[in-house]
From TrEMBL:
Name assigned to this protein: Ca2+-transporting ATPase
InterPro entries with a match to the protein in the record: ATPase_P-typ_cation-transptr_C, ATPase_P-typ_cation-transptr_N, ATPase_P-typ_cyto_dom_N, ATPase_P-typ_P_site, ATPase_P-typ_TM_dom_sf, ATPase_P-typ_transduc_dom_A_sf, ATPase_P-type_domA, Cation_transp_ATPase_P-type
Cited CDD domains: P-type_ATPase_Ca_prok
Domain named Cation-transporting P-type ATPase N-terminal: residues: 2-76
Compartments reported by the entry: Cell membrane
Primary location recorded for the protein, binned into one broad class: membrane
Stored PROSITE patterns: ATPASE_E1_E2 (PS00154)
Pfam families documented for this protein: Cation_ATPase, Cation_ATPase_C, Cation_ATPase_N, E1-E2_ATPase
TM region(s), chain numbering: 48-71, 77-96, 244-264, 270-296, 692-713, 719-741, 769-789, 795-812, 832-851, 863-887
Membrane association type: Multi-pass membrane protein
Organism: Metabacillus niabensis
SMART domains cross-referenced by the UniProt entry: Cation_ATPase_N
């Protein structure tokens, strides 16, 4: 028999599990050994050897190796071996860079690995989805992604979207009845749920019957190898730039070689020099360094609690001009405590903090006995009954399982001695219509001991007021007249203006014959009883974060399902709402078109009582106005807006799988301040990439020009091939990596957001590359000529001086690259990686010049002390000539 044909108990027997206590750890281990991990096979990645060999597939490197081989055959063994060694070391470096980049991307995947709730050893625990085994009992609710194929044993209004499997985008209603009959397709298996599909509504429990490749998804896994490219726009642009640079470098090299040959240089020597120059001048390492810089930045972001799910988001973060953020839990702590209760124009205060169920009820500053106040008792009882949360005592502490709003209601009831478990002895919950943020309420149908049934509803007060017909006033049921309505509205406003989140409680008795099938039937003609007001204090760090964002040219917009006055009060506390700022409500939003919203959206700072579908409209309007929008969300319904936003952000703690998968950034701590840190990091990563692009390209320009000018002037080669390769490996590589780890400039979060279309060379970078590169070439050549003309017989000595000047000019210039403005803006000792890279580059250069066994290999001659003055003086010019002129301009 197939799983879907069996009854639930038959499934349990067949797969040997226990629906009360789940599997034991031992059974899990055994089954894992037998069935393997619950993973789909991934496409094979290139092996380490292949990755290493890939480093040498570059055309110019191959030409260089061929040329070296020829020179080896011609008897130039030392040169040949040295060049091969350098190319080899370069390859190893490239290999490790790529490996590192790959590893950290891999680690990222692990971090955002999906989890599920399974019954193990009698307890519901969170486990990694890949650890599921056949026989596991798993529960899931709206927003979850299904971790394995399961036969359902419980289904509460469960609906699942299975388009990944069936292509059908409409959710399927699920039940637990066995299905008989031949030829039932996957789409008809309504008593099963499948790996990779999404729960869009309700909740359920299932028994795992298939894992890994042994699932419906596994059978089509080959089709699923997601080909989503993780390249960022900058990487793509750099790739194009790289191609242009290769052509330019090659042309210049040909020019150098051509002129050199015309000037009477030996063809073979010129050829080797030309190829070395081409290898050095082509920034082949650039893409790898960019990836490393990006992934190291991403790792720093993880330490600051944000997980980047899509690499391009790192760049887009730096362009963000608006952050649209949820209020509850993101700007506030989501630790709710009921402090006021209102009914019939009476207000009771409740003391106590957090989820500790100890506190007093006061009326007009006097403690009262709740048992003697019938309405109060009723409000508290209903608040606890219409509730899916639980408060558990653990190690003298009280822990909430569920939604904080509901937790607050439970705790308030417990303070009056009304425990949910005890209440269940008098009331049986026979039906539940769970909360959703579109209805903004939740209802249950309860049956008391006498068999009498009631609908109990709790939810947003303005919504409940709209569906109530009467009101309980001083314990008497009266018609809900205009007058009463005004009184309730006054009470709502009074609670909300104290920044309290308000929940209304209402009920309705049912006759014995009345049938209720839908939430719509339950939630009408209610009897309004009263309000519970709860505080949800702002997170302390958010106010400062909002200010920093404002300084950085980023607007913060609060989006909340909460009451407009509560929202306004909290927005004021956090300085989000300026004096002339607008607040817009969900129903006003509904009546506006996207174009109409566009007109006013720049003035709106708070959107209240919104439904998730409004968020999409807000994103669109802002984008149409040219904004780069970051948008947060946690629920299933938030996914479209998260996807549409330039930076979709989801919540690590409260977020559903659906929201997480739609997002490009996950906030591990659900905290608004984390968005600010991520934006700062995003800006920094981009600036650091600019820094080393600037450094590398200026260096390359210098290297090419010194050779070109020398050939034009009919001079001998100022640098020998091995020296050029050495500069490329040591002087270019190490400091560039260190620039990728540079600290942000002080004014990073004082600048306006970067324009997303901005080119790599904007903001004067192109000019800096060319001018500094030109000067580096000139001073190297000048140092060479001075020493060469002093004694034309000692060419190798002049070449060594040129080599040292080129190295030193680059190593000084690297500090200039740290600032957009001037070298004097920054403390050079801030970045110890850079100091380390520069010092080791200098030491390695000294070794090459002064260590006798290396001298024949690198064609070096020990430099005399007085010539160091020349070298240092010359090499300081490229950086300080222009930095100096900038400085005088600034002080003038
Ligand atoms: P944000 O969008 O900032 O997270 P929010 O949490 O207030 O704000 P929703 O969760 O959509 O947004 O809640 C909207 C309203 O629904 C709340 O203001 C509250 O009045 C009501 N509400 C919230 N949670 C529940 C619940 N569990 N049961 C009944 N009503 C609720």
């Amino acid at each position: 028999m197939k799983w879907h044909e069996m009854r639930a108990d038959e499934v349990t027997n067949a797969i040997n599990t226990d629906v009360e206590s789940g599997l034991t750890s031992k059974e899990v281990k055994q089954r894992e050994q037998k069935f393997g991990l619950n993973e789909l096979k991934e496409a094979e990645r290139p092996s380490a050897i292949l990755l290493f060999l890939n480093q040498f597939k570059d055309f110019m490197v191959l030409v260089l190796l061929a040329a070296t081989l020829i020179s080896g055959l011609l008897g130039e063994y030392i040169d040949a071996i040295a060049i091969i060694a350098i190319v080899f070391v370069n390859g190893i470096l490239g290999f490790f860079q790529e490996r590192k980049a790959e590893k950290s991307l891999e680690a990222l995947k692990e971090l955002s690995a999906p989890q599920v709730v399974a019954l193990r050893n009698g307890e519901w625990v969170r486990v990694l989805s890949k650890e599921l085994v056949p026989g596991d009992v798993v529960k899931f609710t709206s927003g979850d992604r299904i971790g394995a194929d399961m036969r359902l044993i419980e289904s509460k209004s469960l609906e699942v979207e299975e388009s990944a499997l069936t292509g059908e985008s409409l959710p399927v209603q699920k039940s637990i009845q066995p299905i008989v009959g031949k030829d039932v397709g996957i789409g008809d298996l309504t008593n099963m749920v499948f790996m990779g599909t999404l729960v869009t509504r309700g909740s359920g429990i299932g028994i795992v019957v298939g894992t890994g490749m042994n699932t419906a998804m596994g059978q089509i896994a080959d089709l699923l190898q997601n080909a989503e490219t993780m390249e960022t726009p900058l990487q793509r642009r750099l790739e194009q730039l790289g191609k242009i640079l290769i052509v330019v470098a090659l042309l210049l090299t040909v020019l150098v070689v051509g002129i050199g040959v015309l000037q009477g240089h030996d063809i073979y020597n010129m050829f080797l020099a030309g190829v070395s120059l081409a290898v050095a001048a082509i920034p082949e390492g650039l893409p790898a360094i960019v990836t490393v810089a990006l992934s190291l930045g991403v790792q720093r972001m993880i330490k600051q609690n944000s997980i980047v799910r899509k690499l391009p988001a790192v760049e887009t973060l730096g362009c963000a001009s608006v952050i649209c953020s949820d209020k509850t839990g993101t700007m506030t702590q989501n630790k709710m405590t009921v402090t006021q209760i209102w009914s019939s124009d009476k207000v009771w205060n409740v003391s106590g903090t957090g989820y500790h169920p100890h506190g007093e009820f006061m009326y007009r500053d006097k403690e009262i006995d709740v048992a003697k106040t019938k309405t109060l008792q009723q409000i508290l009882t209903f608040g606890a009954l219409c509730n899916s949360a639980a408060i558990m005592e653990k190690d003298n502490d009280y822990i909430l399982d569920g939604d904080p709003t509901e937790g607050a209601l439970l705790v308030a009831a417990m303070k009056a001695g009304l425990k949910k478990e005890n209440l269940y002895r008098s009331f049986e919950v026979v039906e539940e219509f769970p909360f959703d943020s579109v209805r903004k309420m939740m209802s249950v149908i309860v049956k008391d001991k006498n068999g009498k049934r009631f609908v109990v509803t709790k939810g947003a007060p303005d919504v409940l007021l709209g569906i109530s017909k009467s009101i309980l006033w001083n314990e008497r049921q009266e018609g809900l007249t205009r007058e009463y309505e005004e009184k309730v509205k006054g009470a709502i406003e009074s609670l909300a203006s104290q920044a309290l989140r308000t929940i209304a409680i209402a009920f309705k008795p049912l006759s014995s014959t009345e049938r209720i099938e839908t939430s719509y039937e339950a939630e009408k003609d209610l009897v309004f009883i009263g309000l519970q007001g709860m505080i949800d204090p702002p997170r302390p760090e958010v106010k400062q974060a909002v200010k920093e964002c404002r300084d950085a040219g980023i607007k913060t917009v609060m989006i909340t399902g909460d009451h407009v006055i509560t929202a306004k009060a909290i927005a004021k506390q956090l300085n989000i709402l300026p004096t002339n700022g607008k607040v817009l409500e969900g129903r006003e939003l509904s009546s506006l078109s996207v174009e109409e919203l566009e007109e006013i959206v720049d003035d709106v700072y708070v959107f209240a009582r919104v439904s998730p579908e409004h968020k999409l409209k807000i994103v669109k309007a802002l984008q149409n106005k040219g904004h780069i929008v970051a948008m947060t969300g946690d629920g299933v319904n938030d996914a479209p807006a998260i996807k549409a936003a330039d930076i979709g952000i989801s919540m690590g703690i409260t977020g559903t799988d659906v929201a997480k998968e739609a997002s490009s950034l996950v906030l591990v701590d659900d905290n608004f301040a984390t968005i600010k840190s991520a934006i700062k990091e995003g800006r920094n990563i981009y600036e650091n990439i600019r820094k080393f692009i600037r450094y590398l390209l200026a260096s390359n320009v210098g290297e090419i020009l010194v050779m070109l000018f020398a050939m034009i002037l009919g001079l001998p080669l100022p640098l020998v091939p091995i020296q050029i390769l050495w500069v490329n490996l040591v002087t270019d590589g190490l400091p560039a990596m260190a620039l990728g780890l540079d600290q942000p400039e002080g004014d990073l979060m004082k600048r306006k957001p970067r324009h997303p279309k901005e080119g790599v060379f904007s903001r004067g970078l192109g000019w800096k590359v060319v001018s500094r590169g030109f000067l580096i070439g000139i001073v190297t050549l000048a140092a060479f000529m001075i020493v060469y003309y002093r004694n034309p017989n000692e060419l190798a000595y002049a070449q060594t001086v040129a080599f040292a000047t080129l190295v030193m000019a680059q190593l000084i210039h690297v500090f200039d690259c740290r600032s957009e403005k001037s070298i004097f803006e920054r403390n050079p000792f801030e970045n110890m990686y850079l100091i380390g890279a520069v010092v080791s580059s200098i030491l390695l250069m000294l070794v090459v010049i002064y260590y006798p066994p290396l001298q024949p290999i690198f064609h070096t001659i020990p430099i005399l002390l007085r010539d160091w003055l020349l070298i240092l003086g010359m090499s300081a010019i490229p950086t300080f000539l222009l930095a100096g002129s900038l400085l005088t301009r600034k002080t003038a």
